[in-house]
Amino acid sequence: MDFLEIANTRQACRSYDPTREIEREKLEKVLEAARLAPSACNAQPYFITVCTGEKKELVAETTRGVGMNGFTKDVPVIFVISEKPEKKGVLGTLVPIDSYMALDMGIAAAYITAEATTQGLSSCIIGWFDDEKIRTVCGNEGRTRLVIALGYAKEGDPLRKKVRKTIDELVKEV
Ligand SMILES: Cc1cc2nc3c(=O)[nH]c(=O)nc-3n(C[C@H](O)[C@H](O)[C@H](O)COP(=O)(O)O)c2cc1C
């Protein structure tokens, strides 16, 4: 798969096969992609908690407030991306490096979901969750900033056409 194939194939999956676990080697490749993601000053100011089994159920439950994210009941693995502030690098002495934290996490999420796609896995980045409950379940100190659902899509789950701004709406050349 070249990168545009990955970008066109990755989609927010909201229909998972609850009978299919993720193979260990695939999970490790996805985590390796996260490890290789770039970040400001190379600080990687985040931490990934891989949730399976009962912990996954408890984290998944927190994503389902006000009728959201019902699909998480069928997801075998959830990554919790939480803050882990780092003071590092020259830039860190000039600007508060943590102000790049959310950007760094977004890049890591992009790497995670892209590698998941190359492994034949489906994913959904989730921004609706209960930070405090997740911290308690995972024993994390850092604030939860993103949750990523990972698993195999249910058979027949269709690949949707991408709805995006046009290049003209998004880009100008000067
Ligand atoms: C930061 C972030 C938070 C998101 N939160 C949710 C969510 O809580 N539930 C959900 O179903 N999708 C969520 N999404 C998925 C987006 O709705 C989806 O990526 C977007 O509509 C584009 O569709 P596509 O990913 O299928 O191409 C989130 C995506 C991002 C990047």
Brief descriptors of the model:
NADH Oxidase; 4-stranded antiparallel β-sheet; binds flavin mononucleotide
Q: What report would you give on this structure?
A:
By secondary structure, the chain is α+β, with helices and mostly antiparallel strands. It has a single domain, classed as NADH Oxidase (3-Layer(aba) Sandwich), CATH 3.40.109. The protein has seven helices and four strands. It has a four-stranded antiparallel beta sheet with strand order 1-2-4-3, sandwiched between helices. The longest helix is centred in the middle third of the chain and has 18 residues, at 101-118. The radius of gyration is 17 Å and the shape is globular. The structure holds flavin mononucleotide (FMN). Flavin mononucleotide is lined by residues 11-12, 14, 68-69, 124-128, 162.
Structural class: alpha+beta
Largest sheet: 4 strands, antiparallel
- Number of extended strands: 4
Query: What share of residues are in beta strands?
Result: 5-15%
Order of helices and strands: HHEHEHHEHEH
Q: And the CATH topology?
A: NADH Oxidase
- The total domain count is 1
Distance between the termini: 32 Å
Strands in their spatial order, largest beta sheet: 1-2-4-3
> What small-molecule ligands were found?
flavin mononucleotide
Q: How many helices?
A: 7
Q: What portion of residues is helical?
A: 25-40%
Radius of gyration (CA) equals 17 Å
CATH architecture: 3-Layer(aba) Sandwich
The CATH superfamily is NADH Oxidase
Kindly state the mean pLDDT as a whole number?
Answer: 95
Highest-level CATH class: Alpha Beta
Shape, per Cα inertia axes: globular
